[in-house]
Design goal:
Layout: H1 13-22, E1 25-28, H2 34-46, E2 56-58, H3 60-63, E3 67-70, H4 90-97, E4 102-111, H5 131-134, E5 145-151, E6 163-164, E7 179-181, E8 184-186, E9 190-191, E10 194-195, E11 197-198, E12 206-210, E13 215-216, E14 226-234, H6 252-255, H7 260-265
């Protein structure tokens, strides 16, 4: 039986920072207006995937399910700029990554029925270590990368919610799916007896989580397209990931209307160490 993720709201920044250390994520309700939700849904379907940008463009006819992902979405339309520094959320990103943090990527996602389940995984483990060390409350590692995962639909189990294991960033490792018993792969599906929880928020909600937390996307078994939008933040020392990488060119129409804070989030930093 699926377990719903408890949606606890922390109003104070200090509480949010503590939750990122303790649970590995923070829930933001209604951070997008209904108009913003609709705007992002439309953009995710209207923007043409570009092969040079490594965008994903899967079709039901050729691939068995529809899936479209637009990489570095901010570069495609100035409308995306306001999602770089959403009030209420950007303060947390800057509190944990530092005032000179930036984004490392931004994606729109549209996924139709038929996409298979993902396995539990982490996005990045900056420092693997024994669990007894990582779980010691005296040890607080810097938070290097976070994801703001915005939901553009009311989530249900059939639409394919994100599942996470609260507190699993304290494991000090990624899930281990390498064991084989009697020729069958044995998947790691819980940590310290804690099972995965489904995020069943509403359109306009956001879950903000650190890269070490165990999570996965699940299959869309409905008859609708699932829309999500992601912004990934990081400390300045973490490189930005804008395909096609060395050949990436910023859209000057976007930069010309960006605020100073938005320009910094896009990479316009003041000189610092190693510069």
């Amino acid at each position: 039986m699926p377990i719903a993720l408890p949606l606890v709201i922390y109003d104070k920044l200090e509480q949010q920072v503590e939750a990122m250390e303790r649970e590995g994520f923070v829930y933001f309700p209604n951070i997008l207006s209904l108009n913003e939700v609709e705007e992002l849904r439309q953009l995710s379907l209207e923007l043409e995937p570009l092969s040079d940008a490594l965008d994903t463009d899967l079709t039901l006819e050729n691939d068995g399910h529809f899936q479209r992902c637009i990489n570095a979405a901010f570069n495609r339309d100035p409308l995306f700029l306001k999602y770089l520094d959403k009030p209420g959320l950007i303060e947390l990103a800057e509190a944990i990554h530092g005032p000179d943090c930036h984004i490392i990527s931004m994606h729109t996602w549209a996924v139709g029925p038929g996409r298979p389940d993902q396995l539990l995984h982490t996005d990045w483990i900056p420092a693997s270590m024994p669990e007894e060390l990582r779980s010691d409350p005296r040890l607080q590692l810097p938070i290097y990368i976070t994801t703001a995962h915005f939901y553009l639909d009311d989530m249900t189990e059939t639409l394919g919610p994100t599942k996470i294991i609260p507190g699993s960033h304290l494991s000090g490792r990624s899930p281990d799916h390498s064991n084989v018993i009697d020729g069958e792969q044995v998947l790691e599906t819980n940590w310290n007896g804690i099972e995965e929880h489904s995020f069943l928020g509403r359109a306009g909600d956001c879950i903000f989580f650190r890269s070490e937390i165990w999570h996965r996307g699940t299959s869309n078994t409905s008859n609708r397209i699932r829309h999500t939008f992601m912004v990934h933040y990081a400390q300045r020392m973490i490189t930005q990931k804008f395909p096609p990488y060395i050949d990436f060119q910023y859209n000057q129409d976007v930069l010309s209307v960006a605020s100073p804070r938005q320009l910094r989030l896009l990479g316009n930093h003041q000189p610092g160490v190693y510069d």
